[in-house]
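Batch job 17 of 40 flagged for manual review because the log was empty.
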Amino acid sequence: MVAGRTERKGELMAGNSQRRGAIRKGGTKKGAVVGSGGKRRRGLEGRGATPPAEARTKHPAAKRAAAKAKAAQSRPAPARGNVPRAGRKSDDGPELVLGRNPVVECLRADVPATALYVAVGTENDERLTESVQRAADMGIAILEVPRTDLDRLSANGLHQGLALQVPPYRYAHPDDLLDRVRGSAEPALLVALDNISDPRNLGAVIRSVAAFGGQGVLIPQRRSASVTAVAWRTSAGAAARLPVARATNLTRTLKDWASQGFQIVGLDAGGDTTLDTFDGTAPTVVVVGSEGKGLSRLVRENCDSILSIPMAGPVESLNASVAAGVVLSEIARQRRLG
C-alpha cells in the first residue's frame, strides 16, 4: 500500500492515477499503443459534391429521366425541314449565308441563290425589305421558317432572322479554260493561284481578271480557297461570268500549258524580272502566291520567269489580290498600245 492506494502491476500513471486501468506498460511511449493503422483515413476524406438527382439511380428524378429517354427512343425522329446546315461549305452540298448584311450583299452581287429563309416574327428593316424584293425579282424561293431552325445553324443567333441558300459552285476543267482562250479574239491571259487560302482574295482576283480581259482563273483542288459566297460577294458578280477551274495537280497543269505556248510568270517580291521590263503581249499565265508563303517550290521551279513589282515606298510586299491587279493592269495597258 502506498499513501492509502492499492499498487497495481506496472508503473502508476501521472495525473490520473486513481482512474481504473491507468497504468503505463513498460517499454512503451506515453499514450495509446493500439491505433487504427490508417484503416479509417479514407472514411475521413470528403466525398465531393453530391451528384444531381438524375444521376442517382434510386432517386425518383433518375427514374423519370430513364422513362423519358426510353419513350424518346421509341418515337421516330422529327423532321428538320430542308434548311441546310451552316458552316464550312462542302463540295457536294449547298452553303448557307447568315446575317442581313451578308445576304443583301450576295443578292446585290447576283449570287445564284436557290432559297431565302426568313424567320417567323423577324423585325423588318431596309435590308430585309431589299433582300425579299431582290429575291422575288430573281425568282428565288422565299420561305418563312421557325426561328429555332435558324438558331441551331448559327452561334449566338447571329443570323438576324435571315439566311440565303447558295448552291455549290460548278468548277470548270482546265481544258475548258484553253477552249475559252482559243475561242477568244483577245490574247490569252489566265491567272493561277498557289497557296491562296482567303476566299476574299480569290474573289478579288476573279474581279480583276474579268476587268482586265482575262479568260479564267485556275486554283488547285487542295489547300486552296474555294468559290464560296464570300468569294462571290467579293468578285461583285464576276464569278458568274468568268470560269474558275480546279486542277488536281497545279504543277502538272502549268507544265501542260507551257508546252502549248504559254509563258508562265510567277509573282514574287524577289523576282528576276521587274514589271517595268516585262513583255505581257504574249499568251500569259500569271501565277500568284500568298503574301506569307509565296510560291511553292515546285510551282516556282516551273515558271519561265519570276516577276516583281517595283516599290516606291518602304512596303515589302503587296496583298496577293492587289499584286495580281497591278500586273493585270500593266498587261492590259501593253496590249492596248500594241
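Reviewer: the log was empty due to a logging misconfiguration, but the result itself is present. The chain has a mean pLDDT of 78. Unflagging and moving on to job 18.
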